[in-house]
Amino acid sequence: MKIIEYTFWTFYRIWFYILVALPILIMFPILLISILKESWYPFFFKLARFWAKVILIGMGFRPIIEREQTPEKNKSYMFIANHTSMADIMLMLVSVKNPFVFVGKKELVKIPLFGFFYKRTCILVDRSSAKSRQAVFLRAQRRLQTGVSICIFPEGGVPEEHIELDEFKDGAFRLAINHKIPIVPLTFADNKKRFSYTFFSGGPGKMRVKIHKFLSTENLTVDDTKVLNAEARSAILKQLETFNS
Length: 245
Hints:
By secondary structure, this protein is α/β, with parallel strands linked by helices. It is built from 8 helices and 7 strands, in the order H-H-E-E-H-E-H-E-H-E-H-E-H-E-H.
């Protein structure tokens, strides 16, 4: 029985990477054109959402999205979520229609094909470099001025399997306060179960998402960063407990 399970998990992982690469190969010319100008990013974002849907459907994942509030068109937000899976990127793209730019770790650039477009469309950060972290604010400011939103996984990485929700870094909240854009917390309930970073694990099934009520930054200053951080983390942690009960 174990041999069958390990065989399934091995092929399931291989199938994931095939699904990641295949749509990029098929759409490569049009994807390449879509990143030539920054003003064309919304079109690239639509292609990215299609790519994400292909992967989720192909893996047998079924997103179930509950919304307490819906983002308005042509308005910028700071989208945040708990981070447990390689599928978090795809689920975020499917859950949110407003064009946004990921702030993510530079190591993902090494992934073939995916890394090529990731490098050219996302804001990369080297978390070990204070200079790199500071540069994120300048790049994010430029992208926000074009009308797009920002997405950050504030745990700063994927926590160990036994950790339900790690502490949040302050960067996303400070950035949102500085630019007076609302925080939109999302809770991903099932991604760790569906497709965690543990190789021999996972399988098809539902992926529940809760888009929480937005947290306003309108009257806040950088001195309120920790309070806003705690409020967002508390909302996600409570929802995880509700999902798991």
